[in-house]
Amino acid sequence: xDDFDMGLLDDKTYLVAVLRQKMLGMYPVFMYRTKPKIEGExxxxxxxxxxxxxxxxxxxxxxxxxxxxxxxxxxNPGSPPALFAVSKVDISSERNMDYYIKPVGDSSRYFAIRxxxxxxxxxxxxxxxFREREEAADxxxxxxxxxxxxxxxxxGKAGEMAHQE
Length: 165
Hints:
Distance between the termini: 45 Å
Strand content: 35-45%
Mean pLDDT: 86
Number of helices: 3
Structural class: alpha+beta
Order of helices and strands: HEEEEHEEEH
Oligomer: single chain
Shape: globular
Number of strands: 7
């Protein structure tokens, strides 16, 4: 898959100094418009127009340091791939994974995901759908693997700090 301008995340020093691990790639995935929700209210795929996705995309999940990037790209006939949206998951902050990615309440193949444009200027929650349950399970497992690795690294750092004291 191609690389795209990701703003500050593509700074030359950052690219060299930070772990970059590609974790999953998948095509096709489907993006949907979602209705605004009140905090705590669950998303339902049945409320989306599942017959008419907003966009058919490729998905790439990559870890860059403590961030998990979920990159959605699309390709129009005769033109190079273009960036549709990015989800920059930062669970090192005060936010947990549910802020960024939520499974919907009525299907195992759909998720609500918080995305931004490539410059981080606009943010929205869109629906993410997979054709097969196995693909959705792979996506979900990738997210769980990231969370577990992040938690282990945090525990390791805390142990090192305690050992140094």
